[in-house]
Amino acid sequence: MSWLGRLYDSTIGKKAIMAVTGVILFAFIIGHLAGNLQILIPDGGARIDAYGRFLHESPVLLWGSRLVLLASVFLHILTSVQLALRNRRARPQPYEFREWREASYASRTMMISGPLIALFVVYHLGHFTTGHFHGSFEPLKVHDNMISGLQVWWASAAYVAAMILLGTHVYHGGWSLFQSLGISHPRYTPLLKKGAAVVAVLITLGYVLIPATIWMGLVR
Amino acid sequence: MRLTLHVWRQKGPKDPGRIVTYDMPDVNPDMSFLEALDVLNERLIQRGEDPIAFDHDCREGICGACGMVINGIPHGPRRATTACQLHLRTFKDGDEIWVEPWRARAFPTIKDLVVDRSAFDRIIAAGGFVSVPTGSAPDGNALPVPKKVADLAMDAAQCIGCGACVASCPNGSAMLFVAAKVSHLGLLPQGRPERRDRARKMVEQMDREGFGACTNTGECEAACPKEIRLEFIARMNRDFLRGTFAERPEAE
Q1: Complex-level ipTM
Q2: Do B165 and B241 fall within a single domain?
């Protein structure tokens, strides 16, 4: 078997793939947040519409980055499902009485927050990228699409809920990925844990700001 | 003091098993948990019942033979303590205590609280050794080892192979055990040459045995009676990834 096959075949190799694809998706989450926060600029959407056109300027770059993201999502999900099935097989009989001491709620629910976020992404793409789940979608009218789409209360609520899930996912995954890649030291691992928690809260707050302010009518 | 024990009873590997409740109205708080089981077994034998089977050997916390999940925690609620060193004074009068075997596919139950841990032996056999010629001992200080490195290696070498990490892990993963073995050998000069190869071989055997994968929850670290740290799992990941990625093909 080639080294790549052996790597993929192993539990540690799969975790490394999850970590690397996690980093790519994490970078996207930050960039996407920075881009979308431009909706808060009160200029009638000039800036964010220009940003939308800028992203679509080069089809090569647009589809190049979309392919990298899609491949990352695919690998992240594939490896996580394979590992989760393996983990479930590893303990066929559950304990009658079980206590948790260290495992955080976030760490034990990665396989719940993850699939729900994936479902949300499908909805989100249909909502603002293809417009299938959007009542009055117009391509490249980013500002108008966001305002009309997020003034619907249940859509706004779905975004807020999904971003809280994303926060819990990043709370654990944000430092766990370093451990999976073999990066750990008493000097910086505690900082990585705290850093992941802070970043998770900031990401959630930042993203929630968008549907919340639009739904409350503060941004129009 | 009075305790109520809910103990997992299983006649053999094929028996589905069940919880049986035993009342212990008069135990001494200074008994170890295993001594309480001894007393209970004496009574069961007197009543003509089958005593509870459990593993034990040194009864001073260094052999790794004993091990049972006590109230949902391997080796019970006290940190850095094996079941044999857990005293009944840890509990309160009138407490109800649940006692179960390690539960993992790779550790099949043989009887009651006894599980077959030979999967660990096969992982060791796959690479947990140093291939050096035996013979006369080398000169003292011929191989200098910095104190801090020796200490770190000793921290990992404390592992007694009891399996509490597997038992506590939500995924039934043996990463902490394998990481301890990979680390203590790989840190010392005698073990360094085979470091990456060893990590690869032991991890591959671990995977073959059907243990789960690590999700970095930290339960193993909390359950480990020898306080092996999660940091060693990262070290093993490093050795394994480098060993697999950077391995050169065999010379002709």
Answers
A1: 0.94
A2: yes
